[in-house]
Hints:
Elements: H1 13-20, E1 25-26, H2 38-45, H3 47-56, H4 59-73, E2 84-87, H5 90-101, E3 107-112, H6 117-124, E4 128-133, H7 134-139, E5 149-153, H8 165-178, E6 181-185, H9 199-206, E7 210-215, E8 228-232, H10 240-247, H11 253-289, E9 296-297, E10 306-310, H12 316-325, E11 328-329, E12 331-332, E13 347-351, H13 356-371
Parallel strand pairs: 1-11, 3-4, 3-5, 5-6, 6-7
Antiparallel strand pairs: 2-8, 7-8, 9-10, 10-13, 12-13
Amino acid sequence: MIEPALQLSSANLTELEYLALNSELNVADGHARQELSEAQQRIVEELPTLFEKAAAQPVEDLERAAHGAFLHLFGQHCYPSGRVLSCYASSVAMEILARSLVTETDAVALIHPTFDNIPDILRGVGLRLVPVEEDALHSGEPIPKGVGCVFVTTPNNPTGRVLSAERLAALADECRSRDVVLALDTSFRGFDTRAHYDHYAILESSGCRWVVIEDTGKLWPTLDLKVGLLLYSENVGLPIPRIYSDILLGVSPFILALVERFAEEAAGGGLADLHAFIAGGRRLVREALADLPGVTFLDPSSRVSVERVDLGDRRCADIWPELYERQVHALPCTQFYWADPSRGEHSLRIALARPYTALGAAVRELRSVLTEH
């Protein structure tokens, strides 16, 4: 991992997140680090029972129950239950997808901006990336020529923008007509009800070749016990199951049982509570910084668990080291703009899935640093 003195320009976002793991003022990674609710604490107290259930039941039954509870929670009722692969994390699913794509194409059209491990993984297998600007994606401009896949993050990280049902249908139709794979990363879907329309109903009816990556790890404070899901169309034409088998046999049945229980709790009211909690954190950040000269908030309608703060004339390269000295960790947005880092050099991303006390302390330190610049 990187040394603290390493320049921001040479570090990827995950390396910066690693630096933050031992800090109480970590608002860097988008993982769920808030406190357990009372209902979730009761699930933790059930862990011995869940372990016994996982040991006794067939893995196939546990997978089916966990997949159904999680995906139905977000309105994904038409997902193909026979084509869901459980992975340790969404990044593992991404690696499997990348290795599958490179058997057929050498170029991917990728949403810009987005979290930099996506372009890093795709480039790591030799794929050439063509940036697709969010505005162009949402306005309906044609997808670039010469690509074998269009990759979209929705809701996007860090902007929170959601691909509408109408736009997804049009994009799927265009991909079908051009025989291009449509890949979606929906890891932040759970935070935004605007993303709870049934994506799989649209994808399956379109006839396009598609792949979707889902993630349980952003929602619940389970100490990173999580499952990433990789789903694909029957006609995808990529060696996804074979490459999956090259990398792993399966995930822990205990984690599957845990995911099912947390999804059940969320369906019983916990998801609405989470939405209110994240909204409260966003208000905290905005109210604490709103009166600072030059500071604005780039994504006013975002509901995901991160918030972008525009620093005005201030540069991340000047602000981040001072925050680090105060043990405050936020992410510079330069690396999100993987095709043009200069566009992110005046903004920071703050993670909101934190106890309000920790989030408030980090934002007060950020305010102090910004006031000095």
